[in-house]
Design a protein that fits this description.
- By secondary structure, the chain is α/β, with parallel strands linked by helices.
- It has a 10-stranded mixed sheet, with helices on both faces.
- Helix 4 packs across helix 6, helix 9 crosses helix 10 and helix 10 packs across helix 11.
- The radius of gyration is 18 Å and the shape is globular.
C-alpha cells in the first residue's frame, strides 16, 4: 500500500492490518451504543449491531470502480500483494475494534453492558471495502471465525465465481451485489476493470442456488441510473434463486459524493414501490423494511430471516 492511500484511509478512521486488512466502526455501532438504535441487519437477520466487526481482507484491492461506492477508489494492482494470514487478520482486527470503541466508555449515554459486549465481537461483516473474494485465504478466515463462535456475512460483487465455488468454509450469509439489470448499465455504473466481469457475475448467479448457506441478492438502487427494469432484475433473481432479495437505496455519503449527486438518492417510497413490483414478479413477499436505511427485504412467504434458521 502506498503512503498516500494509507494516509487517506487512516484519516477516515480505518485501522489497518498489514498491507491489505482493515477494520472501521460502522455508523450503526455508534447508534446502538449511544441511542440503542440497531442496524437494519439486526432487525432483519438477528445479528447484534454492537458486536459486529466490520472489516475487510482487501481494503485497497477491487476489480470494480462502482460510481455509487462510498469507499476510497485509490485501489492497487492485485499482483504481488502481501496479504495477512487469517489468524493475524482476525486477531488484530478485534484489537483495533476494541481500541476504536474505547472512547464510548466515557460517554454517559452509552449503555455499559452494551459497551462491554462490543469489545468481544461475535459477528464479522466481511464487507468494509475492496473485493474480499480476491483474498486467497478467505475460506480459512471464515473457518477461523466459525471456530471462535462468530457468524460471518460475506459481501461480494460476484466477479470471482471460482473463489466462491472453492470456499473451504461457507459464511453464515452470502450477499451478492447485483447493481445493474443488464450488461450495458453494468459497464457504465459498476465500471469493471476487466472484460469478463458481467459474464463472471452471471456464473456467480448460476452458482448461488447450489451453495450450502443462506444467500441474499442485493440490488443497490441509484436514481436515474438503475432504478426500474423490474422484469430484467426478476430474471436475474430467478437465475440466482437466493434465500432473500434486498433492494437498498444508494446513499450520498463518502467518496461517492465526487461521482454522484444527492439527487441520485432514491426515496424510501421509491425503493418500496420497486420492491413491491419486483416481489410480484418473483412470487415473494415483503418481509421487512427500514425507512431510515432505505431498504426492503423480500423472501418467500413464511420465511423467517433470523440467524437461527
Amino acid at each position: 500500500m502506498d503512503a498516500r492511500t494509507r494516509e487517506h484511509l487512516e484519516k477516515q478512521q480505518y485501522r489497518l492490518v498489514g498491507e491489505t486488512g482493515a477494520v472501521k466502526l460502522c455508523h450503526w455501532m455508534r447508534q446502538k451504543l449511544i441511542y440503542g438504535r440497531p442496524c437494519y441487519k439486526e432487525e432483519f437477520y438477528g445479528i447484534q449491531s454492537h458486536r459486529c466487526l466490520q472489516m475487510t481482507p482487501a481494503v485497497n484491492i477491487c476489480n470494480f470502480r462502482c460510481l455509487f461506492c462510498w469507499r476510497f477508489h485509490g485501489m492497487s494492482s492485485f499482483e504481488g500483494v502481501s496479504y495477512p494470514e487469517p489468524e493475524e487478520l482476525l486477531e488484530k482486527c478485534i484489537l483495533e475494534q476494541r481500541s476504536l470503541v474505547s472512547g464510548f466508555k466515557g460517554d454517559e449515554r452509552c449503555d455499559p453492558a452494551l459497551w462491554e459486549e462490543s469489545r468481544t465481537p461475535n459477528q464479522v461483516a466481511i464487507s468494509l471495502s475492496g473485493e474480499p473474494t480476491l483474498y486467497p485465504e478467505l475460506g480459512e478466515f471464515i473457518a477461523l471465525c466459525k471456530r471462535k463462535g462468530m457468524t460471518t456475512f460475506l459481501v461480494t460483487n460476484g466477479s470471482v465465481p471460482k473463489a466462491l465455488a472453492e470456499l473451504s468454509c461457507m459464511p453464515t450469509q452470502l450477499y451478492v451485489t447485483v447493481a445493474a439489470p443488464n450488461r450495458e448499465v453494468f459497464k457504465r455504473l459498476c465500471v469493471p476493470q476487466f472484460d469478463r466481469a458481467w459474464d463472471n457475475l452471471m456464473e456467480t448467479l448460476d452458482l448461488l442456488g447450489t451453495l450450502p448457506t443462506r444467500t441474499v441478492v442485493r440490488h443497490t438502487l441509484v436514481k436515474d441510473w438503475n432504478l426500474g427494469w423490474e422484469d430484467e432484475y426478476a430474471k436475474l433473481d430467478e437465475r440466482a434463486d437466493p434465500t432473500f432479495v434486498e433492494p437498498k437505496g444508494y446513499v450520498f455519503v463518502g467518496d461517492s459524493r465526487t461521482r454522484m449527486t444527492i439527487g441520485n438518492m432514491p426515496s424510501h417510497q421509491a425503493v418500496h414501490e420497486f420492491s413491491s413490483r419486483l416481489a410480484s414478479r418473483l412470487s415473494m413477499e415483503l418481509l421487512a423494511e427500514r425507512e431510515d436505511s432505505r431498504v426492503v427485504l423480500l423472501g418467500k412467504k413464511g420465511t423467517r430471516p433470523r440467524l437461527s434458521d
